[in-house]
Every structure is written in structure tokens, then in C-alpha cells.
Amino acid sequence: MKKLEKHNSFAGVRPVLTIVMDGIGIAPAGDANAVSLARTPNLDRLMNDYPMIPLRAHGTAVGLPSDDDMGNSEVGHNALGSGQVFAQGAKLVSASIESGKMFASDTWKTLVDGAKKGGTLHFIGLFSDGNVHSHIDHLKAMLLQAKAEQVAKIRIHILLDGRDVGETSALEYVEPFEAFLADLCADGTVDAKIASGGGRMKITMDRYEANWSMVEEGWKVHVRGEGRQFASAKEAIETYRAETKAIDQDLPPFVIAENGQPVGTIEDGDSVIFYNFRGDRAIEISKAFEAGADFDKFDRVKVPAVLYAGMLEYDGDLHIPSRYLVSPPEITNTMGEYLADSGINQFAISETQKYGHVTYFWNGNRSGKFSDELETYVEIPSDIVPFEQRPWMKCAEITDKLIEALESGKYDCLRVNFPNGDMVGHTGSLEATVCSVEALDLQLGRILAAVDKAGAVALITADHGNADEMAETDKKTGEIKRNKDGSPKAKTSHTLNKVPCIIYDNVTKDAYTVKADDGHFGLSSVAGTVVNLLGYNKPEMWDDSLIELK
């Protein structure tokens, strides 16, 4: 049991609500800052009238290798929910490759040995150096090792990014990679080729079972080799760009073929590695490969008998996939577990796009609940439409249910994620993202009124930035990069900016002091602040709270 220790003089306040404004960072006002451009009277009032401490939400503050690495929702919610910083996927994988531990693992040996018995070794994953879901250097290291171990035939299935990197940067990765493959194959000992691909928001990388048709489209091109054929990935990208005007993440699927025949279908006896290290968009394709005859999400038509592995174990409770190359971080002593063991009722809500973040990732990459009796999780189904076409998403419906929960008096500790700023920000549409922020602000007004009515306290924060920088900038001059027509070059990735943490307290603010911002506070400080407000001391292993109880 992990029980919280009551504070000796402060009884606390109930309930305490944590609001995660996904993708809302702090940046100077400007023509590309959707947060400052939006009309946000409620957020403005919060920032002006209540204590606000900027929190670090990227790099080492959330367990990533360096402060050049942007944060993301998964590591952000791990830190928010655990009160601690754990080494995360990118760092773990890089260390495993550098030490050679990955290549000494039973999983690597099994897949390589399988491919050497006449099969093909396939790699599927996000094709960039964004370091959020994957890194191309990890792929290259595995290709070099596979050749060294005398694997004769290798095929790569590339998922184009344009989301964690520049929106039209695909050829900046494809062309050098083709040269890398040419060098790899120059001595004739290995045959390695790109076999299929498509935009990450069109195929394969769905999450939270929001749109299984994406996975089906990926299965068709990767496994069955069915789809529009091209002689090269470069030809596919250039053709689709000319025809659709889409950015990389939205480019349609393609198959590389020679003489009308796909170069890299997946067959019985092959080995397959899904090389993304982040789990949310890797689980469904893993299920498709590993599920038996009872799989009912789509008709796979062809189900080859393969050896399959993920870069990491993407779901530690459900053990998906059954084989993996690197052990994921073991996140322990989370806030959810301490609250449940202390008898505190909890409520978590979001829509499908971020539901797993306020549950699975918040609880340390753990499926299910710590207590069925004390915890209530609510998922509002997301619409399957392009986010820029409906930028308000489900924020009103989420707020309806959240207010019901506050008014019920049943819950002591509540948390909510509003995906708008992040999911719409990823589209690159400044106009739509401004709308998304304004829609969120309307709901903040409703929630704050309900918080006051319930005699509650709220922490309003974010998991990382996104909407705060909607255009790429020149690193040397700081000027916005422009397209040929003079329009800003859209930025679709997360930012390196800090995020706000506002303490909205009209009840017990005289019972504590807010600590001075000395620049070291990160997302992991939120958990200690929450339990302090509830009237408990934070567990010793958690990072510092933002407040000092009197």
C-alpha cells in the first residue's frame, strides 16, 4: 500500500482539478502564435490575476536525451502523473544501441536468425529524426548490424512525418537514405530497399482505436503490396505533392514496384520490426500482426506467419507486442496509485485522441485502474474528421461531463485533457488553431464557474507547446520562414517552450505560499502540488511541489 501522509496543520481542499490544455505553450506574442492571436478572456484573466509558474516540458525535464528534444504528450503525462522524471524511449533506445545490448538481446537474435533462413527482414516505422516516435539513426544502426550479421534481404516501409519535423521535409530524409542504402548494398552481400510508405496520418499509425481504417490501409501496402505503384519513394512523394498539395503527414499510401511487381510484400517466414519507440501509435499495427483468427477490426485477407517485434513493449499490462528489443521505463509510485491507496476518489476525462494520456500514460504506462471502486474514467468519442475542419473538437462535450462530475460531489481529485491546441496545431493551419484555442477558452469560463460553485481549486497547465508557434523560424535571425508566395511556412511540430501552471484558488490560498520561479520547475512538480492542496505531504521520491504549506 502506498498511502499519503496527512499534513500536520493543513486539512486541504476538495476537490482539486487539474486541467491539461494540450499543446498550449508560452511564447512571445506574434503573427504565428495562435494562443496570443486568439481571443481568450478567461485565460488572460487567469494569467493576470492568479499565480502562474512556467514549467519545463521538454528535454531532460521529461526524461529525453537533451534539451534540444521537444516534449510530447506521452512523456508529459508520465511526468504529470508520476511526479518524477524517468528516462524515456529515445534515450533508452540510443543507450541500448550504443552499448550493444539491443543486438545481444534474444529478440534481435531470434528475428535475425529467422530472416537468415531464407526470409526477409522488414522494418516499419516513422521515417524522420523527430525523436518523438522514432529516430532514423536507430533504423540505420539496425540496418548496419543486420548486414554485419549477414542478413541477405531487407525491406523498409516508411511512414512520412511532416508533423514532428518540417511539414514538407520528407525528401530531406529519403534522398540521403537512398544513398545510405546504395552504400550498404554496394558489395552485393545484402539487398536492401524501400518497399512501401505513406503519410503517418493516412496509414498505419492510428491510436486509441480512433480509426482502424488507417491501419488497414497500412496493412494493404506493407503486407500485401496493394496500392498505387511507383519506381521510388521520391517519385511517389513528388507525384502526390503535385496532385494533392498535401503535406507529408497526409500523403496517400504507395508501393514501390519493379516490372509491375511489389518489391517487398511480407510473407511467411519473414521477420518484422516496428521501430517506433513511442507506444500510442504502435499498438494497433502490433495487434494486427500478432492477433489470431478472432481479429475483427478489418479483413487482413493475408496473414503471414512472421516473427514480429516492437522497439519497446508498447503496453506493459497487455504485453503488446509479445517481443520487443528494448525494455521500456518502469514508472513507479504514481499519483494515481497513491491516491487510490489513500481512499481518494478520482475522475479522469478526455476525448479519444487524448483519453489514453489522462489514464494509461498518467498512470505510468499502465492499463486499467488502481481501484475500480474509487476511479471513474470517461472517454468522449472523437470525430473522425480532419481536425482543422472541426477545431473545437469535443471540448464542449468534455466540459459537460466534467461539470457533472464536479457538481456530483463524489470526486476529490479530477483531471481533464483538452486536445485542441495540440491536435489542431499539428495540422499547420493557423486560422483553425486560433479557433481551437478560442473554443477551449470558452470552456475554461464554464469550468471556472463550476469550480467556484463546488468550492474547488484548479491547476491549469499543459503537457508541451504547439499552438504557440505555428510557423518555422530561422534559427539565426529568428525571422519567420516564408513560402514562395510569401505566406508563413507552417510549423506542425511541438515547441521547446515552457508551459503555464496557474493555481486557481479562491478558497485556501492563504494556507500556502507559491514558490518563486527559479527556472527549475517542470511538469513533474504538478503531482506534489496536487496532493499538497488535498492536505497531504508529497511522497519523498516526487519532485518539488510548487507551493509551501504554512
Task: Explain the overall architecture.
It is built from 17 helices and 20 strands. The chain has helices at 34-37, 41-49, 73-82, 89-99, 101-104, 106-115, 136-148, 170-185, 212-224, 233-244, 283-290, 335-341, 352-361, 395-408, 420-423, 430-453, 525-533, and strands at 5-6, 16-21, 52-55, 121-126, 153-160, 191-199, 229-230, 254-258, 261-262, 271-274, 307-312, 324-326, 346-351, 375-380, 413-418, 457-461, 499-505, 512-514, 536-537, 547-549. Strands 4, 5, 6, 7, 8, 9, 10, 11 and 12 form a nine-stranded mixed β-sheet that branches. Helix 3 crosses helix 13 and helix 14 packs parallel to helix 16 (430-453). The model has no long low-confidence stretch (mean pLDDT 95).
Q: Can you give me a brief rundown of this structure?
A:
By secondary structure, the protein is α/β, with parallel strands linked by helices.
